[in-house]
């Protein structure tokens, strides 16, 4: 059994189903990130793990022990909230030591634990300050310090960096990764920011509408998404989705027509038996290349033609937004040395990089061994 096991968990608030048959195994020491759009249920799942909410059905187990009826303080979890939730009238020392003082721990034990946490979090010089005298990042460190001194089995973070500015977020992200490396404790982290999820997670859990859509290593989800939601959610700029129709099907050759409204394409793909009708091709923006005017496309490529609507210059590269004749929006990432001349632009993509999705949004995989 996994270190932390979430089995068939559902949660409803009145008539509203918020979590639907959530199953997840978390190993000891893993850094797990729950990510998904606002309202998908990630905070609720975190609150269920720590005991601030009950399940409607299903079980939460930690180290083989069912936690459903165990009170929050006895679960060995410590939560860090987005709002920091510090006591404003207490100093850093008092805030960090609060749970130890409530547990009537000996004074020298308290001082020792607070000093160790303060050293890890660089709070040593701020122990006598009150929250009003601390920056956002420092307050966040105090909140983390308060969790560390409890020596939990599992740290739970609910969007802890969302009140910080972009630069500080990046810095705190690095600090959290270092903290995880030092402590080796299991951490579960909630965010709606997929970049944050990609950079932090050993295991990334993408949620949507109360269900786990896919869980795995961030790059596996990026390269090999199970469905259109995960494909579109992970990655920035987002994956492009091009409507197409199945025209012919053979071993390692799937003929598509109406690609992006007009073009044809042959994918090196063995379709499942009976595949017919409308599908969607998924292509990442970095898998498309702009074609200089008049230049022939590489053999067998998927070629798209459209009107450039916006070029975002980012210095090292640019994001080129275009719209195809049928109205399908397409974004490509172009390098500095690539010529992008509007208003009309042709782009080419290697069909080996195309993913295929059915009308139900599920990924259609090539039959017979290949990942695609
Ligand atoms: N105590 C509650 N009573 C009723 N509905 C609730 C309660 N808590 C959460 N919800 C609802 O459950 C759904 C999921 O909320 P949750 O906070 O888990 O989402 P989330 O994915 O964490 O979103 P966000 O990123 O916006 O925090 C939302 O529709 C929310 O309105």
TrEMBL record:
Origin, by domain of life?
Answer: Bacteria
Which residues does the UniProt record annotate as the domain ABC transporter?
4-234
One Pfam family matching this protein: TOBE_2
> Where is the protein found, in the record's own terms?
Cell inner membrane
Q: Which UniProt keywords apply?
A: ATP-binding, Nucleotide-binding, Transport
| SUPFAM superfamilies in UniProt | MOP-like, P-loop containing nucleoside triphosphate hydrolases
Answer yes or no on keyword Transport.
yes
Name where it mostly resides. Answer: membrane
Q: What cellular component GO annotations does this protein have?
A: ATP-binding cassette (ABC) transporter complex, substrate-binding subunit-containing; maltose transport complex
The membrane topology term of the UniProt record is:
Peripheral membrane protein
**Molecular function terms from GO:** ABC-type maltose transporter activity; ATP binding; ATP hydrolysis activity
The record's InterPro entries line, in alphabetical order, gives:
AAA+_ATPase, ABC_transporter-like_ATP-bd, ABC_transporter-like_CS, ABC_transpr_MalK-like, ABC_transpr_MalK/UgpC-like, Mo/tungstate-bd_C_term_dom, NA-bd_OB-fold, P-loop_NTPase
Under the heading NCBIfam families, the entry gives: PRK11650.1
The similarity annotation says: Belongs to the ABC transporter superfamily.
Q: What is this protein called?
A: Carbohydrate ABC transporter ATP-binding protein, CUT1 family
User: In which organism is this protein found?
Assistant: Kaistia soli DSM 19436
């Amino acid at each position: 059994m996994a270190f932390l096991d979430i089995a068939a968990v559902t949660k409803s608030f009145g008539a509203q189903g918020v979590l639907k048959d959530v199953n997840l195994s978390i190993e000891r020491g893993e850094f797990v990130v729950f990510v998904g759009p606002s309202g998908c249920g990630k905070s609720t799942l975190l609150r269920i793990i720590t005991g601030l909410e009950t399940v409607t059905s299903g079980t939460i187990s930690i180290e083989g022990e069912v936690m459903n009826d165990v009170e929050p303080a006895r679960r060995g979890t410590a939560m860090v909230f987005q709002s920091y939730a510090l006591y404003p009238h207490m100093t850093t020392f008092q805030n960090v030591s609060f749970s130890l003082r409530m547990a009537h721990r000996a004074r020298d034990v308290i001082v020792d634990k607070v000093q160790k946490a303060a050293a890890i979090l660089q709070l040593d010089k701020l122990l006598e300050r009150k929250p009003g005298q601390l920056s956002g990042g420092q307050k966040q460190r105090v909140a983390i310090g308060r969790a560390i001194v409890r020596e939990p089995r599992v740290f739970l973070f609910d969007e802890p960096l969302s009140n910080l500015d972009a630069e500080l977020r990046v810095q705190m992200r690095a600090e959290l990764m270092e903290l995880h490396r030092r402590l080796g404790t299991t951490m579960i982290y909630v965010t709606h920011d997929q970049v944050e999820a990609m950079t932090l997670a050993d295991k990334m859990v993408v949620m949507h509408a109360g269900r786990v859509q896919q869980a795995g290593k961030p790059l596996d989800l990026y390269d090999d998404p199970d469905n259109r939601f995960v494909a579109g959610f992970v990655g920035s700029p987002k994956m492009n989705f091009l409507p197409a129709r199945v025209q012919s099907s053979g071993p390692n050759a799937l003929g598509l027509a109406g690609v992006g409204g007009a073009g044809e394409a042959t994918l090196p793909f063995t379709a499942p038996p009976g595949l017919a009708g409308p599908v969607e091709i998924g292509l990442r923006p970095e898998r498309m290349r702009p074609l200089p005017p008049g230049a022939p496309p590489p053999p067998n490529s998927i070629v798209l033609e459209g009107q450039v609507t916006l070029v975002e210059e980012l210095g090292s590269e640019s994001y080129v937004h275009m719209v195809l004749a049928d109205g399908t929006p397409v974004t490509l990432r172009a390098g500095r040395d690539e010529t992008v001349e509007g208003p009309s632009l042709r782009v080419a993509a290697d069909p080996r990089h195309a993913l295929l999705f059915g009308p139900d949004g599920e990924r259609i995989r090539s039959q017979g061994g290949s990942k695609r």
